[in-house]
Amino acid sequence: MSTSTKKILLVEDDLDIIQILSMRLEINGFDVITATDGELGLEKAKEQKPDLILLDLMLPKINGYEVCQMLKFDDDHKDIPIVITSSLHMESERTRAIEAGADAYFLKPVDLELLLVKMKSLMNEN
């Protein structure tokens, strides 16, 4: 039996954001896996092979830039779309995230409708 449910890895250290985003993603038919620090996020990305990763930048243990770069420069994981969600509003942060390999960058609080549209677009490209 084949399933078309897409698996999303949400790497975020704010439990309120995890709860809100997980609920919205699940309502929209996604299977959500969560990690609360960069180290765990990296492990889950490699073990679970999600269809897309929502990644915060300011994370304990390993920051989001490093997680993104490690995955994007790994042949086994480089095709997983990574969407950065961040409260860092400086353009230099967006540039740094894109240079690390991010496919998109959303400022917090995230516009959930725009995020969903972008996520679906990125997953259909792969």
Task: Give a brief outline of the structure.
This protein has helices spanning 15-27, 38-48, 64-72, 91-99, 112-125; strands at 7-11, 31-35, 52-56, 82-86, 104-107. The chain has 126 residues and is an alpha/beta fold.
Architecture overview:
With 126 residues, the chain is α/β, with parallel strands linked by helices. The protein has a single domain, classed as Rossmann fold (3-Layer(aba) Sandwich). Helices cover 44% and strands 19% of the residues. The protein contains 5 helices and 5 strands, in the order βαβαβαβαβα. The protein has helices at residues 15-27, 38-48, 64-72, 91-99, 112-125; strands at residues 7-11, 31-35, 52-56, 82-86, 104-107. Strands 2-1-3-4-5 form a 5-stranded parallel sheet, sandwiched between helices. 30% of the residues are buried. The mean pLDDT is 93.
Mean pLDDT level: 93
**First-last Cα distance:** 22 Å
Query: How many helical elements?
Result: 5
Strand order of the largest sheet: 2-1-3-4-5
Q: Report the biggest beta sheet as strand number plus sense, adding barrel if it closes.
A: 5 strands, parallel
The number of strands is 5
Radius of gyration in whole Å, from Cα? 13 Å
CATH topology: Rossmann fold
Oligomer type: single chain
Q: Please trace the helix and strand order, writing H or E for each element.
A: EHEHEHEHEH
Share of β-strand residues: 15-25%
Shape: globular
CATH level-1 class: Alpha Beta
CATH level-two architecture = 3-Layer(aba) Sandwich
Total tally of structural domains: 1
CATH superfamily: Response regulator
